[in-house]
Amino acid sequence: METKTKAIAIDGPAGAGKSSLAKALAKKLDFIYVDTGALYRAIGLAFSKRGFDTSLNCDIADELKNINVDIRFIDGVQHVFLGETDVSEEIRTPVASMMASAVSAKGEVRAKLLDMQRDFAKKYNCIMDGRDIGTVVLPDADLKIFLTASDEERAMRRYKELKEKGDTSTFEEVLSDMRQRDYNDSHRAIAPLKPAEDAVIADTTGKNVEESLVMLLDIIKENIK
Ligand code: DC
């Protein structure tokens, strides 16, 4: 008989700590970590390279036919590829963030990525983070966590990350971009960002990574036997 894999879905707005916490949890549990935002970012980057801005004035389905996005695990770490080019770094710029938010509102883009995401969960025990993992991608996940934090704190975390990479955006710009992206992500018609009905809400405001990790491990212990 086929053994069923385990899946933990982590959704929430940008900067709530999803990726660092999911990565750390995956290591502790020996699951793979799938960062689905990277897929939307890669597609956003591809549209940007094709000369489009966030208004995406084009035939989306037609453009998508020539965009090959893929996830590969190298030494257990996820890398995202456009064709044969590893774009894992290039997708982390503010422009790629806004483009990701724009393409992610398009049904054609979401449909293209759905099976790829589900296939990972079929094959591996995984922790998958995104915006619609608990509501759409893996509605039968063993555990759904909705991770959140105040918008000022989320923006401050993202601001520090960008600054470390040499980005010159101000805190106000990062906060305003983040609010715009939160608004787009939670108000789009298809698969908007919202907690699944059976999600556990976890708030990381005022908690550092270690404290948040303890909170999540407790939630996992309580919910996955
Ligand atoms: O998590 P992130 O910031 O890397 O995500 C980039 C964008 O992709 C974000 O604006 C929302 C979108 N996204 C989505 O719509 N669905 C997902 N499962 C993951 C990300």
Characterization of the model:
The structure is a single chain. Strand 4 and strand 5 (85-86) form a beta hairpin. The protein is globular. It is of the alpha/beta class. The chain is built from nine helices and eight strands. It has helices at residues 18-29, 37-49, 60-64, 94-103, 107-123, 133-137, 151-164, 171-187, 209-223, and strands at 7-11, 32-35, 69-74, 77-82, 85-86, 126-130, 143-148, 200-203. The longest helix has 17 residues, at 107-123. The chain has a five-stranded parallel β-sheet with strand order 2-6-1-7-8, with helices on both faces. The chain has a three-stranded antiparallel β-sheet with strand order 3-4-5. 2'-deoxycytidine-5'-monophosphate (DC) binds next to helix 2, helix 4 and helix 8.
Uncertain residue ranges: none
- Rounded mean pLDDT is 94
Total beta strand runs = 8
Helix content: 40-55%
Distance, first to last CA: 20 Å
Number of helices, counting only DSSP H or I runs of 4 residues or more: 9
The ordered string of helix (H) and strand (E) elements is EHEHHEEEHHEHEHHEH
